[in-house]
Amino acid sequence: MMILILVSAGCAELPPGGESGWSGILSPSDSQETPGGEEPDPGYLTPVTPYPTATSSMASPTFSMPPEVAPTPDMYVIIYNRTAQFVQTTEAFAFDLTAPPLLIDFTVEPKMITREVQAKSDYTDRKHKTYKQTFPSEDAWFKVTVWDRVSGTVVAENGFGKLYSADTHKQVYVGRSGDYQIELSGNDVKVHVLMRAGGV
Hints:
By secondary structure, the protein is mainly beta. It has a domain at 77-111 and 139-199: Jelly Rolls. 7% of the residues lie in helices and 46% in strands. The chain has helices at 2-11, 28-31, and strands at residues 77-86, 89-97, 99-110, 112-120, 128-136, 141-148, 154-160, 169-174, 178-187, 189-199. The strands form three sheets. It has a four-stranded antiparallel sheet, with no helix packed on it. Strand 4 and strand 5 (128-136) form a beta hairpin. The radius of gyration is 46 Å and the shape is flat. The N and C termini lie far apart (118 Å).
């Protein structure tokens, strides 16, 4: 055992000169230096003058706001714009539509009713408790009707409640010219009505 340890220790000796360096063995031709201690130039690169270094510091980025876009003007003429309460109310207006279309937009805010309801709890105690429920009044409704004043027939209509859906924002559209009567009627509602025409 001692012999093996000594033999292996002998293999770990430093190369002559006592300096450790890069691992690996250089061939005699690789280790030869040119006179003056410089490596030979293989000739692939051509020396040139370097670009001048900029002395000024890099400019900080500037931020600019995007250009403001002008809002698109409404191509229609507003002939009615009002919010009103309707309690068993009917209003009527005559309008001679010479430049169709006629657009009547309305947004309904129905009267809300709050009631207390007795119900059994679904939790473990199963006791009867009082709950508050809020919902639109059953008497809330609104309707827009456009009549042809010459023939007396209904040209267009739409509404909220009763025979109509509970959507709170709707529109009535009339696409042909004529002499019309516009009726707004309703109950237990606050309504914003906007009427526009192609021209007056």
